[in-house]
Amino acid sequence: MSVKFSCPACAASIVAREDKLGRRARCPKCGEPIIVGGGEAPSALRDASSIVVAPDDPTAGGPAADDAFTGEVPELIPGLPTGPSAVRPVARTRRSRSRGGKPPVGMAWKLGGAGAALTLIAAGVGAAFYFGAGDEEPETNPALARLNDGGGMSARLPVDDVEEDLADGFALAGMNGAGSGLPPGEELSIPEVIARVSPGVVRITMYDEDGDEVGLGSGFVVGGPGADGSAADGSGLVATNYHVISEGDRAVAHFRDGQEREVVGVRGWDAQRDLAVLELESLPAGAVPLPLAETLPLAGSQTVAVGHPGGFQFTTTAGIVSALQRTDQLPDGARQFLSAPADQMWVQTNATISGGNSGGPLLNLRGEVIGINTWVVGERGLGFAAAAWDLGELIRRADPEPTALADLPSDPGGLGGGGPLEQFMAGLSGEVEATLTTHQRRMEEFAVSFSTVESPADLLALRDQHPARQTADDLLTLAEEEPTSAEARSALLAALMVGRSIVSDEEEGRVIAAAGEALLRDHGKDPELRVVPLMLGGSGRPEAHDLLRELRTASPFRDIQGMSVFALASALVRSEESTPEQADEAVALLEETIKDYGDITLEGTPLDAAAAPLKYVVENLVPGRQPPAITGKDSEGEPMALEDFRGRVVLLDFFADWCPYCTAMYPQERVLAKKYEDRPFVILGVNGDDPDRLREIREDGSVTWRTWADGPGGAISERYRVSSLPTLFLIDADGRIAEKYEGAPDHEELVARIEELVKEAEANGD
């Protein structure tokens, strides 16, 4: 059973499981301490950052540290799988063959850096086509997970424990309807979720006063029709992001069955929380409202995202809930970018979301909306959805009459839905559009086969059947018919984009080279080529690098030149096999970007602001570089500096005890420390727990190596741009980074690399 009560501080209505009665917690809305069932928690708790359990109550245990992440491997994406990496600002970042995956291609490479690499997701194409993770052969069944971003053994930094506990039985009250209608605890398969919710998901197209298309996004029905089929009394409404609709004068909602409905106006909006509720002229008979989840999702639980990335309609991706974050818990750059209220809750996911997904639903496996997809950190493959409870509150206080779109205040901070790639996609027609429509049908059929994969062997057999190769070749052939025509140019650009998703690196390179050669020969002076840097900024292929170099020289347009320079710098450091020479070239290109093209803006972000954070990473945190200095005291209070260990190989481990993948490494690291205790090797830790927890794991022998106490989101982690745990840097005896591992590395691979570096240190020391 559930109980409902109000927060004494903010009056938010809260639902909690009956077994939580009397527990001390924090209000999920305002963060103030409360007693579950009513009342205000003692003032002594007001500075506590997590749920507090009375020590004399043996039945009231807080959530276990390992509960934050279940260890479940994220499901592969039935509908549109992920694949080759977005720009990674760290070169040669290592991931375990069975525990990692390349993140999806995203468009936020253009914003660079940990703080600036953020973008509202109504713009860009992102990972719409992407599937493979290179040519490595999967070795064990968990290898299926490495095709999914974030599927590796790493955990996002969590929110306070209170959010984990709230996710297990608390919610703000008043969601729409009675939920999914499923029995408690019952879940659907991902194909069942897709079939259930698709009739309620819409594509929203925005038009200006002249009738020209200015952007697109996603949305979903949140109420049924009134008696006459019109939206009335809170029914027949469609939810989306405010930034999707803020720049248009007219909007049309497109349903899965091909029907269209005019948007009458906006019944409610919250620009700060980036939410809007639209009223349609009517609803198609088959449209279904999507219920809002009544509780926060549990970290590690599976998610499904539905939307229209880059105009590719009704695309589905899947992943897990990586974490729950309030705005005030986000990095400084993210908070400045969002300008969202401090108490707004975000559901962080590794399900691939990108341009055109804005406003679409993020769902649990009951088919309930847990969030509204809103923004991404593209360089890290992180997606964020506004928690559904804010939408529920907006629905409850919706205006009785709609406000015309043209009368809405302009969104000052949004990037809108009309980016260069969106405009390119919207302008396609004729045989190119027909070819891409055929590609979409092939992808849908491929997704059915993909969702039945049960073994690595099946996966290998299926990879060669990915439709991208055939579609890219069809587009290249189409371009040969009238090579200098606008249709040929569109076909070549589409081939370039589709070709990025081909699983084989060699085949991807072949398509990039063929399309690039024809584009430069027949269309090199065209302004439409400004989408090329957006398509190639995340590519590690040398053919892409060559094309960007040539485009920079060939184009007469300064913005294309500047974007090509920045895209090339980003691409050079994306490759896992990036060399120190490439890193040096990237730094020079970033300096050129800042000096010569810094004033050029890309969807509202100046290139100098985008390049500066990436330059810091390439100068300090890629292999071959000397990492930032670390000085301070270890967990025992003794002075310790990274420089003190010059002459020894250092395994620098960023970890926390709440992270199960970190704790799973403890025995291996203790064995390593003993094995190399008489050789030039040392393990040093940077711990993200509170000091008491660090002291406990040192005293009980779990962690035997010296460790800096950095705390949650500490200064050392920030200097090293650590966004997931565990993250390890292997530093050679000369004090330079040899490898970086995000996620728990393959133990044999790690030991082999350590042995290699230790032998070099011993040889040089003789």
Automatic annotation (TrEMBL):
<keyword id="KW-0645">Protease</keyword>
<dbReference type="Pfam" id="PF13365">
    <property type="entry name" value="Trypsin_2"/>
</dbReference>
<dbReference type="Pfam" id="PF00578">
    <property type="entry name" value="AhpC-TSA"/>
</dbReference>
<dbReference type="GO" id="GO:0016209">
    <property type="term" value="F:antioxidant activity"/>
</dbReference>
<feature type="domain" description="Thioredoxin">
    <location>
        <begin position="621"/>
        <end position="759"/>
    </location>
</feature>
<dbReference type="GO" id="GO:0016491">
    <property type="term" value="F:oxidoreductase activity"/>
</dbReference>
<feature type="region of interest" description="Disordered">
    <location>
        <begin position="79"/>
        <end position="104"/>
    </location>
</feature>
<dbReference type="GO" id="GO:0004252">
    <property type="term" value="F:serine-type endopeptidase activity"/>
</dbReference>
<protein>
    <submittedName>
        <fullName>Periplasmic pH-dependent serine endoprotease DegQ</fullName>
        <ecNumber>3.4.21.107</ecNumber>
    </submittedName>
</protein>
<keyword id="KW-0378">Hydrolase</keyword>
<dbReference type="GO" id="GO:0006508">
    <property type="term" value="P:proteolysis"/>
</dbReference>
<dbReference type="InterPro" id="IPR051201">
    <property type="entry name" value="Chloro_Bact_Ser_Proteases"/>
</dbReference>
<dbReference type="InterPro" id="IPR001940">
    <property type="entry name" value="Peptidase_S1C"/>
</dbReference>
<dbReference type="InterPro" id="IPR013766">
    <property type="entry name" value="Thioredoxin_domain"/>
</dbReference>
<dbReference type="InterPro" id="IPR036249">
    <property type="entry name" value="Thioredoxin-like_sf"/>
</dbReference>
<dbReference type="InterPro" id="IPR009003">
    <property type="entry name" value="Peptidase_S1_PA"/>
</dbReference>
<dbReference type="InterPro" id="IPR000866">
    <property type="entry name" value="AhpC/TSA"/>
</dbReference>
<feature type="compositionally biased region" description="Basic residues">
    <location>
        <begin position="91"/>
        <end position="100"/>
    </location>
</feature>
